[in-house]
Each structure stands twice: as C-alpha cells, then as structure tokens.
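FAQ: What does a ligand-bound record look like?

Like this one, built around zinc ion:
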Amino acid sequence: MDVGRLSPDDAAALHAILQALEPSLTAKQRGGTAALLTWEELYEPLSPPQRAFLDAFRALKAASLGATAHFFGEPSAPPDLVPVGPQEIVKEGVAKPLDPQYLPREALSAYQRMMDAMEADLGTRLRVESGYRSPAYQLYLFLFYLPKHGDSITETNRFVALPGHSEHGYPPRQAVDFINEAGINGEDHPEEFEALPEYRWLEEHAARFGFALSYPRGNPHGTAFEPWHWHFEGEKE
Ligand SMILES: [Zn+2]
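The answer part, i.e. the structure of the complex:
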C-alpha cells in the first residue's frame, strides 16, 4: 500500500468499502453505539478481499509512516465504560443533542468534578464531543477521513490516529475531545477553541483533576495542535 497516496485501485476499493459500511455505521450512529463498534460488526458487511484490505490498515504502525505517535495497543475488553449522559449544545438559540459518549467510570467522575469547578468559575461547562472509541470505530474514522486528505495515509495520520495509536481507544490514558456550550470545538480552526475562556481555564486547572493536553503546538509526535483533546492521567493526591 502506498502510504503517500493510495493507488487508483486502492482508492476505488476504499470507496466501495465506505459504501458497504454506510448502512451499518449509520444505524450504529443513530443508535448511539458507534463508539463501541466491534471488529465483528465492522467486518460483517464486507467481502473477503475487503476484509483483507482492512487488515492491511490494522497492520500499519505510525512509526512506518515516519510519525512518532505512540502505539498503545488494543485492549480487548473495554472495562467499566459508562454513558456520559444526554448532552446538548445551543447554536443560534437552537438546542442540538450530541451523539452519546462513553468514558471509563473514573475519568467520567473526574470530568464531572472538573466541570463543576469550571461552572463555579465561568458559569459554563464543556461537553464531551468524543470519549471512548473502540479500535474498530477508530479504523472506520481513519478510512472515512482518508479521501478528505487526498487519499494520503501519511497526511490523514496527522489528524486521525490509526487504531491502537489513539488515546480515545486506550482507557488507561482516556482521551476526551471537548466542545463548548455554543458548539465551538476548534475542528476547522483550532485557534477558535484556543481563544475560549474555557480553554484558558483548562490550562490553569485541568492538572488538578488529572487531565493533560495531549497535543500542544509543535508537539514531537507530528500530530496537529489539538487544543480540544485532553487525556485523563488519573488524579494525583
Ligand atoms: Zn481527540
């Protein structure tokens, strides 16, 4: 597989796979369980050659792309994942529900206490736009975003981790992507999230609750600056 740019044949195979996956992924997303997608569920709608194509992606390591993203591995049984609970943002006066999210119990409890403190200071709380993501869902996201990054695996990897390389799929270092009450998540313009009072509050206080910024500007991992992406390291007394 050419990691700089998929060959036309591979790009066509990817397109067919995304089409084949669309019905089941849409159903899981509607049902609020896409983040918990299993390998069996991901592979089920695919032909044997398509499954082999996915296997090739599962075998890819960031190191072989010249990136230094850490390989966490794929913990098999997700431990004590609990739903974050109903969440919504309000855009132009209209409330919009967020997709259901899941976090390990301890991370969820620390997040809630951190938000209680933020609300006491700023009168607002950040929502969890993305918490736990299974390795299978992580691979689906990688494939979904690949055509949007010129079919380049190397370039996509700067923005979406390969399965096994994401803190979202590694509960001992559980990642949380935040979005504010007004729906600002910095996805298109990281500076918008960086400029929020909520972000400055996190910089000052998150460590107290066991959270740390994973990808600061100019990080050594070759990962883009992600001011919304924090991970839970466990609380220090
Ligand atoms: Zn993230």
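Follow-up question: can I read anything off the structure? Yes, for example: The chain has one domain: 1-237.
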